[in-house]
Amino acid sequence: MTQAFHSMRPPLLVVSSSYSKDSFVRHLALRCAEDFSVTVLIPDGCESLPADGKLDERCHQQFPFGLTGLAYGAGIVSNMRRKKFLLLGLPLYFLYLVSAIRATINKTGAKVLHAHWLVPGALAAVVCKRLFNKRIKILATAHGSDLFLLPQTPAKPLVKFALSGIDCLAVVSSPLAQAARELGYRGRIEICSMGVDTALFSAPQKPARTPTVVFAARLVHRKGAHILLEAFSKIASKHPRTRLVLAGDGEQRGSLENLAGQLGLAERVEFKGALTQQKLADLLACADIFVNPTLANEGFGLANVEAMSCGCIPLVADYPAAHGIIQHGVNGFLFPQGNAKALSELLSKTIETSASMAQIRSAAVRTARKHFDWDSIASSYIHIFKSLR
Length: 389
Description:
Elements: E1 11-15, H1 24-32, E2 37-43, E3 56-60, H2 76-82, H3 86-108, E4 112-116, H4 118-131, E5 137-142, H5 145-148, H6 156-165, E6 168-171, H7 174-182, E7 189-191, E8 212-216, H8 225-235, E9 243-247, H9 253-262, E10 269-273, H10 277-286, E11 289-292, H11 302-309, E12 313-317, E13 333-335, H12 340-353, H13 358-371, H14 374-388
Parallel strand pairs: 1-2, 1-4, 2-3, 4-5, 5-6, 6-7, 8-9, 8-11, 9-10, 11-12, 12-13
């Protein structure tokens, strides 16, 4: 450990199975580094990270001999679905994680551990606590799938075991808090939404022109890009100058490009691929309408808030957590999930009236800045950490 991490700041251990330089987990850790000496424990195989001297970022093995493949990419669950043999390595991954947590606590002296996702992070932390260090305090953050999807699988007992041993549960939306209660969790719950860098995702004056429509998510079925393409095809002839930009990559990119061609949209739709935070912010700053056609029961919906912060008019599928972000007709619009016809009608109306929707845009920006700015979100987490010490 370098001299930069020897300070009077109390140590904090952050554990996550997903991590990148632009991730929510890393942004939160960086902001907490003002008050804590933060060590981040992540699986090996992570992308190159900037050496900013604020975080002690350590990797643990995924498999023997330095093999990787379970974490990152589409995520652990999706990776196992695509490559069934990874299931065989899950116990080894878990043992490596428990061992790494124990060693890192012993080395750093951390008394508070922040685990992102209940499985495997919080589960491994609870096992470590019960076997080796009963004094460690655990805050677990549930992001969505760990409370909405995993309990519908054979992993439900693991989720309940993780919940039984944590000291506080942070959730990114109210529906997740309800899901935790339905699983029998009776402990402390704090609602801490995901944060947005409102300085990066800023709202310039939108030029008066035919709108650009943007989608930003992984190109997988549950994100609903095919619904948006179908809806856009229904109104393409009515709005011949409108263009659609899809930002993101994933296993369905090829099939979605084929679908765009079949629908006659090849010249009207641009596939940007995965973008950095800066490039996504630049794209949204030039866009007028943002569409989130997700088919999933999302835990939050960070892209909604990033688009709102850039002054886009958000059109969002009506999943429960969206109601904590979008007030229909006030700062954006909701439409029935999976309904391409309803989306096409809403999209057409929004294109026709977007030039006169200054109030909607302003309300969207105010919502993002007032409720989801990184400073306020980080302050909420710092308050929790201090209360657990």
